[in-house]
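Attaching the record inline, Q. Sequence:
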Amino acid sequence: MQAPFSRIAVVGSGALGIYYGARLAAGGAEVRFLMRGDLAAVRVRGTVIARVGAEVIEARPAGFFGASAEMGPADLVLVTLKATANAALGELLAPLLGKDTAVLTLQNGLGPDEALAELVGPERVLGGLAFIAVNRIAPGEVFCHHPGYVTLGEFAGPATERTRAVAARFEASGMRIRLTDCLLDARWHKLVWNIPFNGLAIAAGGLTTDRLCADPILRANVMELMREVQQGAAAFGVTITDDFLQQQYDVTPPMGAYAPSSLVDFRAGREVEVEMIWGEPLRRARAAGVATPRLAELYEALKKATVPASSSG
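Structure, as predicted:
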């Protein structure tokens, strides 16, 4: 009998998509990657590669496609596109959906689960938060600085047998999974790291995390932003402990000169997920009457810094 979620489609073959897709393929799943820019190089090599320290993980066999219409329905669709590309998501997903296809989004910020539910129906949707440090280093190749874990949950309610089956597929491929009965809780917890480190990396002039941690003023800004996320989450019934704030800071210096994903996008001239990672949390905090002045300042700075070139005077 075929194991659950054996056929997996990866939509968005950047750093996250390559890393998780490669691991799932190495763990025995049939993985099909939707990719654009790296497609020709990956087809020549015949694989994508994830490096974790000295370990090399390759997706063999795997399929590489330039259009989702060529891929066929999957048991599980893994959405690792940036949220800035969501306008095209409905068209990309439609050919991949069978009767019982589940769709798991690993997008950051607040709102991606709701956006996906509108496209494919809430009953299909799972959400995941990837606590990981990974960068793309070549076409179809990534280096993982810190593998971390994935927090996984259902959009429509608490964890189910389906959630546990998806978790088992990831765990069988060597990944750590934590189940949650509340995706909103998990998303606020992920913002504790993403808001300060992804944001300040850009706003402070293109700094990697080691330099943010080494500068006393920037380090203080990181902690202040973390506390504002903690306060915003509390307004929605989400408790984030002081120990969690400290743990999220403490894992960062050992990463070395790590460039957060938003900084990578910014340097490459790609659109940054400003609204979902900074704008939406700020709006929700304000609506709940929570003052977040550091977040407001950072949000405004990021809007100015990341204006697309085509929009500038």
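The first strand starts at residue 7 and ends at 11. Residues 309-313 have pLDDT under 50 and may be disordered.

More tomorrow.
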